[in-house]
Amino acid sequence: MALRFEVLGRFNRARAAQLTLPHFACQTPLFMPVGTQGTIKGLTTDQLEEIGCQIILGNTYHLALRPTSELIDELGGLHKFMNWPRALLTDSGGFQMVSLLHLADITEKGVTFQSPVDGKPMLLTPEESIQIQNRIGADIIMALDDVVRTTITGPRIEEAMYRTLRWVDRCIAAHKRPHEQNLFGIVQGGLDPVLRDICVRGLVDRNLPGYAIGGLAGGEDKDSFWRVVAQCTAALPEDKPRYVMGVGYPLDIVVCSALGADMYDCVYPTRTARFGTALVPEGVLKLKHNAMVNDTRPIDPTCACMVCKNYTRAYIHCLVTKDAMGSQLLSYHNLYYMLQLSRNLHSSIVEGRFVCDFLQKMFPKGDVPEWVCNAMDVAGIDISSCCSS
Amino acid sequence: AGGAVFGSIVGGSNIEERKRCAQEVAVRNVSGYWIGGFGLGESMEERPSLLNAVTDNLPKDWPRMICGLGLPEEVLQGVAAGVDLFDSAYIYHLTIGGFALTFPLDRTEKNDYNYQLSDQGSDRTKINLRATVYRKDATPIVEDCCCYTCQNHTKAYINHLLNVHEMLAQILLEIHNTHHYLGFFRSIREAIKEGCFEQFQKKFVQSRREHLAADVVSV
């Protein structure tokens, strides 16, 4: 165990906590930008510190291909390689199984990929994943899980859940740096509460430093999504961090935090920036739209970030249709938005007001989606002031 | 609406036309001179006389701007002829090609023969960060450079960023190249103020050709 998790405040199931990792003391709930290949597209590490980024996610699969984990290790680990002084998390490479499934073969041994670089077969076993992650040196590493899409049904889900538990034991055995790197287990089981329950109990038995809720954010309906999160957060230990992988949209983060989750990651803010879309309290703002041509307001007048303080919508409109700078500025703003959201969640969980403020800005007509109302019900947060019905 | 207007001076590679154009623009009511048509194929040898044909016929009190001279040796030719402002895409092309400027900026007398012949066929003026020789190079682009890139990142990291086609590669290279190039201009200004610009130019040009001489000797 190489972390300390201290709950500082609560509102029903929601918690505001301090997560102390080897490289940085973080405040949760927190959002982790995704820096797949050892960089957040277009932003310098200085800028990331400036906007308050606490943990960055790096991807084992990509880094193992280029520049290779051995090279990263030889140069002193990923922190030193990319010059990021705060915390890092690497995922196991497992998610690529789902996204590259037509090229992958999953057996008890591990996962065979076809390398996109040179076509050679690559075998990713739990042991290999952990060894690669040990070399990369992140503060948090993820167990290799057998992840299946929530949109499929049948015995495959059960097979994947039990395999995930067997693989977690192999990951624990292979982990050579437990005093410097925290191995998180990932709860699988699709949308089946029985399978999820078995998986949670199996992982809790292994007494890991933290737990992730995996296999979601893959196209399932929102109603199923929040129920799985609610079930898992209710069953996972109170005194350990809970990470919902691949989440997500600001609204999803607010709901999951209300239900008791602490950590999130998603490519959405940076990816949507590259398509010219900015995140704002009301939802999204499409900078490529013609309406932006003469708009001399900042993206968000209430935002304190460098982009909103220095650039107009009109200028960014010009850039996003022509120049990489446009997506760089939008990435900066969007990440600032997500990190400010995290900070607001942390500081206001005790008050409980934040959820209502957030929902009122996003749904000024009171048309809060039903799944959100149901989830807040379970979370014990009264949002009747934001709903018109 | 209240901005300065510069007069354009053209004339191709024809000394007489250059002179005529400069003389004509010089009597017009403009705030400065934009010298066009250079960097389009004239040789290093013929350029000084063409430049002088222009600047000899311009008043000394107004700024002279030139477009198309980017290489340090070309800039020095422009400065020698009395040009004040330079505009080119030189830095942009270096950056998108993965190059970083490395030529020495300091003007102290040094016996600079510690240059090592390398296999990549490069010289002391710039390096290409895509070269595999930099995969594990944990040193900055230029050792004592105080730009953001050299203070924070290694050649190995930039090599990786270029290999995986990440935007940050161009950002970091552009920062360094701009900083380095502007440093070159600062050296020029200092040399002029100290009254030794001619020596500065001569020494600069000579040292950039030294590696060729060294190559010849070693074969």
Automatic annotation (TrEMBL), chain A:
Protein name: Queuine tRNA-ribosyltransferase catalytic subunit 1
Organism of this sequence: Citrus sinensis (Sweet orange)
Organism lineage: Eukaryota, Viridiplantae, Streptophyta, Embryophyta, Tracheophyta
Automatic annotation (TrEMBL), chain B:
Top-level taxon of origin: Eukaryota
Gene Ontology terms: biological process: tRNA modification
Residue intervals of the tRNA-guanine(15) transglycosylase-like domain: 3-209
InterPro entries the record matches: Queuine_tRNA-ribosyltrfase (IPR050852), TGT-like_sf (IPR036511), tRNA_ribo_trans-like (IPR002616)
A Pfam cross-reference name: TGT
PANTHER family, per the entry: QUEUINE TRNA-RIBOSYLTRANSFERASE ACCESSORY SUBUNIT 2
This protein's name: tRNA-guanine(15) transglycosylase-like domain-containing protein
